[in-house]
């Protein structure tokens, strides 16, 4: 084990200044990802700056009706907040279906956005992995790739993005707020998560010292009729094989508004824009849901072990849409 120093900060400016000034420093939030990364030598921080005392843990409604979730809000507190449960059940459900109760009590929303892939080769120091060691190759391409992605892949990396709540936030067009020594930046969530391309080690646009301060979800009435459907090998404490975050509004049995994003099948939280376009104006029937789902997956690229995900993702989308359609329009 390499030695790591630890300090605790109480205000945002000090946190940013401390990490920015030291190339070996990193933020420590709940530690549920960070400590693992240090243990398995996937990251090499020499100094941890604990941000658990920062006053960025509130969940509040903004004057324009948007919901602002502080980066240090715990997954469980967000999942159980009445505001979230009423206005965005998809967020609450995505959180409750992730990790375990103990982890959710500790893990923060900011840390969740920056969790690392569960690809076993990434977590195995003996394996070749372009994400951990750029240019070293990708053992998953020819290895055990049952859990890997079929959308957004490249010849350099096929790892899935593991977050559940990031999928829900992607369906809702959330914005990630970031602070650094130069000021404030706001990233639409779809721009925040990067495709692997030739640089799978670069997963987001943040630079060293950038601090996520909040995640903002726009005021979307359709969010009230939303859900998160997660399909996995076992019913709890497991990552998704395929998941769908969905919000739906019908008018006279026709799709008037729809938001759809996928997890477990793509290299980033995947906004299913093709399916959304195919659904608008169509009758809310199993046939049109299946057609749209097939359209979304038409560019999917499977490996020998994960071909089943193409079908599974379609079934997951259809079931999510059917479930919401059966509830009627409650927005
Ligand atoms: C066994 C297990 C099962 C899990 N299952 C699921 C699951 O099913 N679904 C799911 O979505 N997740 C799951 N997770 C992942 C879990 O949700 C994340 O580990 C957690 O959300 C990370 O938050 P944290 O506060 O602990 O972050 P940390 O571990 O403290 O930090 C993670 C990374 O983010 C950086 N960081 C933290 N906060 C900030 C900030 N505000 N600004 C800038 N950088 C920051 C840190 O430097 C670090 O690099 C699981 C984790 C484990 C260990
Ligand atoms: S899929 Fe990505 S994370 Fe996994 S071994 Fe290949 S390069 Fe590494």
From TrEMBL:
Coiled coil: none
All residue ranges annotated as the FAD-binding PCMH-type domain in the record: 1-222
UniProt keyword list: Oxidoreductase
GO molecular function, one term: oxidoreductase activity
SUPFAM superfamilies xrefs: CO dehydrogenase flavoprotein C-terminal domain-like, FAD-binding/transporter-associated domain-like
InterPro entries in the record: CO_DH_flav_C, CO_DH_flav_C_dom_sf, Diverse_Substr_Oxidored, FAD-bd_PCMH, FAD-bd_PCMH-like_sf, FAD-bd_PCMH_sub1, FAD-bd_PCMH_sub2, Mopterin_DH_FAD-bd
One Pfam family from the record: FAD_binding_5
Gene3D superfamilies assigned to the protein according to its UniProt record, in alphabetical order: 3.30.465.10, CO dehydrogenase flavoprotein, C-terminal domain, Uridine Diphospho-n-acetylenolpyruvylglucosamine Reductase, domain 2
Protein's recorded name: Carbon-monoxide dehydrogenase medium subunit
Native source organism of the sequence: Catellatospora bangladeshensis
Lineage: Bacteria, Bacillati, Actinomycetota, Actinomycetes, Micromonosporales
